[in-house]
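step=predict obj=GIY-YIG nuclease family protein n=299
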Amino acid sequence: MRGKSIKLYIMGEKYKSLKTAELSNWTGKAYIGQRKHVQMLQDIEELASPGIYILISEIEDSYQKKIYIGEADEVNKRMADQFKQKDWWNDFVVFISKDANLTKSHVRYLERELYDIALKNKTTIETTNGNTPPGSKLPISECDDMSDFNENIIFVLNNLGIIDFTKTEVNHQKIENTKRESDYFYMSVPGPKGESAKEAKLVIVEGTYRLLAGSYIRKDNVSSFASHNYAKLRKQLEEDNFFESSESGNYFKLCKDVDFKSPSAAAAIVRNSSMNGRKEWKLKNGLNLDEFENRQIES
């Protein structure tokens, strides 16, 4: 895999840590800042152009970040509007084109694509957009260009630690066909006394931990888990209809795949209890995930 270089520029004393980020051979440019920088954006000429922006806030006692994704013809002016209209966000990222080649149609396309990707990242992102962005119709060649642009947006967000914004639009059928039984990790899901334990299944895909549809999810609550950060995430997944009834009244079944950044988060969702996922997820040969990943590093 070829690497990429991120050029990070810390702006002068006047701007007090407002930053820009660029990639080599990319026409895009990111402005990264906080609420206090919004007024300063009005003086930056290249921001009086079409762009896409993300408003960001940490969620207390959660591993997720709360975000809003938007676009505008003059993105600096829209940021000033959002400063007045929304008080929940603390940080922002704005993306523009250095060569001024982004049009209104382009940024509307980018907004919709980013929004759709965010919805697939339930375990790390909470989106606050009240409505689904309409997007725009572009020629296929420009769709490809904008998809490449979005890939670079996600690369910047991930690798600067701003948002865990991983694109998960992959061909699941292809994964099922290429993964062997020996690639899957399993975890026993015990039920009430007298009922046989069920099973959950997980696979590593491009650095994320994918809990697979069909996995059993323990229903009953563990009182010590109620205040845990992962308990809130589990509740959200349940409210978003990721769980369905099973043949047993003591278990749910996961009805669609879910990607996690942490194997412990996946284990906690399954067991409804705080778990060390690196120890609990095991291959059929008994090797746990921690041992497996250590061997991968050593080899």
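step=describe
Residues 169-175 have pLDDT under 50 and may be disordered.
step=end
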